[in-house]
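Re: that chain you flagged

S.,

Sorry for the slow reply, it's been a week of failed gels. I finally had a moment to sit down with the sequence you sent. For the record, here it is as I used it:
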Amino acid sequence: MHVFITGGTRGIGLGIVGEFLKQGHKVSYTGTSDASIEKNIGLLKGDYNPIVCDVRHRNDIVKAKDKALEVFGEIDVWINNAGVDQERDTIDKLSEKEIHRVVDINIVGSMLGTSIALELFKTQG
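Prediction finished late last night. Pasting the structure tokens below so you have them in one place:
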């Protein structure tokens, strides 16, 4: 089985990546930078394909999906895990930029990922 996971370089996402690998599955996962991906290379065991992707941008997700398909073939499971926390303050103290960052990654990124996954799964049958 081939599993695609956004936000797989730390926290819950990294745990999900590790568990699927332990079960013998092929895993493609995304991180926001080369640095976030490189820190886990060698720590994971199994067939994995790390991809740099910013889920705020549809084209980035499409490119990540295409690279995953190129490396491991059809995707069986798609997990939209990418997300960020807000600064540890009350919402009235958050800047407009910080609010947009949280919404764009957590909500827009998840919606874009779902849209792309649905298109893919319709073509895969």
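What I noticed first: The radius of gyration is 15 Å.

Talk soon,
D.
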